[in-house]
Structure formats: C-alpha cells, structure tokens
C-alpha cells in the first residue's frame, strides 16, 4: 500500500470522507521512484477500472509531471462524497491499493468547485 501523506495534515482524507457533500473532486498527487513507474501505472489502471464501475463515479484523468520527475496527479469527479466514500472504503479497493510499489506516496484530498464571478461557475 502506498504511504499516505495528506496535502493538509490538519484535515486528512479520513476526516474528509466523513462529510456529507457533493459533488466532489478527488485530487491525488503520487510521488515514486523512477524505476517503479511501470508498476505504478499498471496498478493505477487496475484501481481506476474498479472505481469506474462504482456508483457515482463520473470521470478520472491521470497526468505525469513534465521532465524527469516521476510525479503523477490524478483527479476524479464523483457525484457525491458518499459515493466516493463507499468506493474508497470498499474492501476490494483497499486490497487493490496494497499492490502499489513501496516507493509510492499518495497525497489525496477532496475538493468542491468554487464560483468566481466572471471566471468560473460552481
């Protein structure tokens, strides 16, 4: 299982998933050793395929940092925090994340859209 390092240590993912809100966007930054990239991609693909089949899942996208940095950013959109919580705590998913390379460090955090007049809508 990848080490979990919260983006905001004062409010880690375990506290975030308890809230009743939605829709939510999961942003997860992964850091890992370069030699573990292929193993990471294989495992991420498997866990993303599981999430894609879960109720409330809308979409996901994986990004790789430019250059030589083996850093990845994933974001996934969910209809509600309850849907995300059910998938994230599902025993099958918990078993899948154990397959991530030992060097992988995950920093998951949940977000909601914000309206900024004249720029973006919520």
From TrEMBL:
Family annotation (Gene3D superfamilies): 3.30.70.100
Domain of life according to the entry: Bacteria
The keyword Oxidoreductase appears for this protein: yes
Annotated keywords: Monooxygenase, Oxidoreductase
GO molecular function: monooxygenase activity
Residue ranges annotated for the ABM domain, each copy included: 24-114
Xref: PROSITE patterns: ABM
Pfam family, one: ABM
Name of the protein this chain belongs to: Heme-degrading monooxygenase HmoA
Source organism: Bradyrhizobium japonicum
The organism's taxonomic lineage, starting at the top: Bacteria, Pseudomonadati, Pseudomonadota, Alphaproteobacteria, Hyphomicrobiales
